[in-house]
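4.2 Preliminary Data

To establish feasibility before requesting continued support, the project team ran the inverse folding procedure on a target of 143 residues. The structure was first converted into the token representation described in Section 3, and no sequence information of any kind was made available to the design step. The complete token record follows.
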């Protein structure tokens, strides 16, 4: 198993953060990591996402597992077959009591390939998550 977890505090209501997070059509305008996303934030929906990782792109089709407006979005992506390389990606939106929220973006990678050193290096996406969090914060606070 390999896990990545990041946080950002956002001075905006939970539903505004949710709106930015789930406005997939606008990702190309602001998101430096998931540069394209299509689909619906609904349980069971299959998304079509494109990641930009240091200039190279990767397409993947995760399935939405949790979609609670203003609270949580979670999907599961797989490389080829179950348990080879699975990534459960989540966005948790928690109200801070000050009119803002804390967004936690995390991913847990599991499967046989996680143990390989060259694969594990590719899974070190902390900086990409941080860049996306910062961009989402700016967009949500501007609205």
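Position-by-position output of the design step:
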């Amino acid at each position: 198993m390999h896990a990545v977890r990041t946080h950002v505090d956002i001075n905006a209501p939970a539903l505004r953060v949710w709106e930015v997070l789930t406005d997939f059509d606008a990702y190309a305008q602001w998101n430096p990591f998931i540069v394209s996303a299509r689909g619906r934030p609904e349980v069971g929906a299959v998304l079509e996402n494109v990641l930009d990782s240091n200039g190279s792109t990767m397409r993947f089709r995760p399935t939405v597992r949790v979609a609670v407006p203003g609270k949580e979005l979670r999907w599961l992506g797989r490389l080829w077959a179950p348990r080879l390389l699975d990534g459960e990606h989540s966005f948790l939106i928690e109200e801070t009591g000050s009119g803002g929220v804390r967004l936690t973006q995390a991913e847990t990678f599991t499967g046989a390939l996680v143990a390989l050193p060259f694969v594990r290096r590719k899974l070190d996406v902390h900086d990409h998550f941080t860049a996306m969090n910062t961009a989402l914060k700016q967009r949500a606070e501007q609205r």
